[in-house]
Amino acid sequence: MAWLFEDRRRWAAFSALLLLAGAAWTWAARVPPEAGALALTPSPRAGFPAPDFALDSLGGGQVRLSEQRGSVVLVNIWASWCGPCRAEMPAIQRLYAAESGRGLQILAVNSTVQDSADAARAFAEELGLSFPILIDGDGAVTTAYRVQALPSTFVIDRAGVVRRVLYGGPLSEATLRAELEPLLQEAP
Amino acid sequence: MLPVIQVGRLALNAPGLALLLGLWLALWLAEREAGRLGLRGDSLSAALLAGLAAGLAAARLAFAARAPGAYMADPLALLSPNLSAFDPLWGLLAGMAVALLDMRRRGLALLPALDALAPALALMALALALAQLAGGDAYGAPARLPWSVYLWEEWRHPTQAYAALAALASLGLWRVSRAAPLGPGARLALVAGGLAAGQVLVEGFRGDSALAAGGLRVGQVVALLVLASALFFLRPGVKDEGE
User: Fold this and answer.
1) Are residues B145 and B100 located together in one domain of the fold?
2) Is A148 on the interface with B (CB under 8 A)?
3) Which of A13, B38, B124, B237 is the most buried (most CB within 10 A)?
């Protein structure tokens, strides 16, 4: 490599060649306008459309994620035996009580495949949860959202796009507010 | 992809762990390299740690500024160990500013100190690529190749692995030029140039690039500018002019 540094003209030629090759690759790798944004398949990660689901609610009826379009949705996947889930749920309830009027929806998906509907019901009653508690009996949502730790929290904007994924907990009310506030301020 | 390592009831954030390990190795390497370049390694380490502490504090405060009322009501939440509750950009800017100021306060010559950081920069780039591999970030465009990885519902270019290779190549570039009589600051420019060249190449295979006018990828344009600056700084004669 030392021979390159020995002569100014040699170095200039090398630099020009490298930059030209880089510029050519940059031009060749541009995304054509007709392709728009890079292809986005629904996926449980920031920047992607949230995978849709429809689950039975403990309160009766079925709740579909895509029907919440226009609201900021916090999907919290939990189990009754999970300590951090229990610890953060009161903060989520306080947020729901305070911000549902501004378009915040909470969907608390009980990972029933590793819990039970009875335990989920007792948990919700004990903590006085008023938002929809959804039963993921066959684990379809737990799998689709690639849950590897409980709780897992997905923050979805009004357009149905995942904006943040928060693995583990417990999340404080302040942390959740800091995540949600900018999205709540976005126009519906 | 392995975003979380579950150890019993403890959920470890794998990307965070990779970054932490990379940071520890980078600090160790920077201190060692500082000694080799005739600088006080402990002073450089102390300045970097001061920058790290300031960066973490600034990143948390900038995050909290999104909902100041909530943090005023619960100030202890500022100390939450949650790795999501940070604003990385503000953290990086504040951390760099404090580290540079502290280096100056400790009487460390700037360009040789930056040279001591050259291998640490390549090592941190490697740690970042591995963290992105664990978290599934900075993913590639869809492609059916023998070495494609299945990620986010598609077979894709393993761009995180490409970036890790580019970082290793930059580290190798630093290693082979270690004994060369380069001018002050040139070692950092060499590594930064190597990383920028790698970024120009790898970004073109990404599936999540931020786009500028005409569909150009912002990451490639910025990396080209860094590469041009590094090549200009490294041009023969700079050492003589500096002396």
Assistant:
1) no
2) yes
3) B124
